[in-house]
Amino acid sequence: MSEPTPRLFQPLTLKSVTLPNRVVVSPMCMYSARNGYANDFHLVHLGQYALAGVGLIFTEAAAVSPEGRISPEDLGLWDDQQIAPLGRITDFIHAQGGRVGIQLAHAGRKASTYAPWRGKGAVPPERGGWEVIGPDSAPYNASFPIPVAMTTEDIARITGAFVAATRRAEIAGFDTVEVHAAHGYLLHQFLSPLANSRTDEYGGSFENRTRLLLEVVRGVRRAFPQHKPVFVRVSATDWAEGGWDADQTTQLAGLLLREGVDVLDVSSGGLTPEQQITAGPGYQVPFAAQIHAAHPNLGIMAVGMIDTPERAEGILQNGDADLIAIARPHLGDPHWVQAAAAALGASHDVVDAYARGTRTT
């Protein structure tokens, strides 16, 4: 009798979208766009994963408004003219039989900062920086921009920007969208008491702090075709006393499920420089497992130092998650998924032009 197919290489159907395997290219900022526009770099960078046969490929965070970019070089989807360059990428990936999603984001108080290899902290106006916004006027740290506290009109505008970007994502041909509510960016800032000192209906209680994210998700879900899945990325904990934590995330997960979210992408941290992270291989998986146990009908994606095929397979076998997002290992080896198939003894399809290179050991 043949050995059962490893779970990492079993297909997964989300609404009408079937992924050929459970390996996902995690969203990773590339700091290579100009005025938010995708270019040849993004085509080659993302297209290589389709040639390798990755189950789902996510773009980096795409800002829903110009001031929502993390850096001046970030991808964007705030203008109709940005649709066509992204459509060129989705067309290529689909032609190889791949599936592709876009992460929609607003950096909030962590916007207008340098790409890692260009500097640290705030980018001044003379170098292309801009005024940033946030739940209140507290900066991330002393070297980051001081945000302008958002009015209710600002909140409505940003919610509308997420919805408009979602409609553009559909026109561009994406199979899924992911709302970025993690890593200390705007939606996470509203969730955490450490970044949200508001006293109106968007601050204070759990209900108020989750209000903006739920409004954004509700708008995104209505704007995106119902037969396609919607992801949300969260930081399960701030790793800091008095901050957002795993129990609040688990409670939020139930609310997101009711709003029609299909998959929760479970990361952590990024909200405060005071965070105390105990990092190691698979260190975020327990958060994914907790949420999965509480909400078995919600798809869960695990991410964070999942460094070997065996570790990824073990997470799936344990029932801790349904998908495995791989970030930096994909930068080191764009054909990581082929190596994983060989290591686990799984069959794996790649495009014909690459079939001769399929790994057997």
TrEMBL record:
Pfam families: Oxidored_FMN. The keyword NADP applies. Its cofactor is FMN. CDD domains: OYE_YqiM_FMN. InterPro entries: Aldolase_TIM, OxRdtase_FMN_N, YqjM-like. Residues 8-341 form the NADH:flavin oxidoreductase/NADH oxidase N-terminal domain. The keyword Flavoprotein applies. It comes from the Bacteria. Keywords: Flavoprotein, FMN, NADP, Oxidoreductase. This is NADH:flavin oxidoreductase/NADH oxidase. The lineage of its organism: Bacteria, Thermotogati, Deinococcota, Deinococci, Deinococcales.
